[in-house]
């Protein structure tokens, strides 16, 4: 029997239409993966830095960040 191991990686996603720009997630992210995009006035997650730890989800007062599969 062949057992196939499937691993999924996730990274955080911030819905810019819901975010109130409080900056809490940016402060707490251990990888400095959340940066402010001054051109579009929003926070974005740098996929190359995010390790999917979920800290930003716990510290957001509105539960806005969510983990999504990396595709
Ligand atoms: S999941 Fe972790 S590493 Fe990724 S943006 Fe959130 S706090 Fe940062
Ligand atoms: S903690 Fe939540 S509301 Fe605050 S900047 Fe991050 S995603 Fe936006």
TrEMBL record:
Keywords: 4Fe-4S, Iron, Iron-sulfur, Metal-binding. Residues 10-39, 41-70 form the 4Fe-4S ferredoxin-type domain. The keyword 4Fe-4S applies. The keyword Nucleotide-binding does not apply. GO terms for molecular function: 4 iron, 4 sulfur cluster binding; metal ion binding; oxidoreductase activity. It comes from the Archaea. PANTHER family: ADENYLYLSULFATE REDUCTASE, BETA SUBUNIT, FERREDOXIN III. This is 4Fe-4S binding protein.
């Amino acid at each position: 029997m062949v057992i196939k191991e499937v691993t999924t990686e996730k990274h955080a996603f911030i819905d810019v239409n819901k975010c109130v720009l409080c900056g809490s997630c940016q402060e707490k992210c251990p990888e400095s993966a959340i940066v402010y995009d001054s051109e579009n006035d929003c926070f974005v997650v740098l996929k190359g830095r995010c390790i999917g730890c979920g800290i930003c989800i716990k510290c957001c007062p509105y539960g806005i960040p969510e983990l999504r599969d990396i595709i």
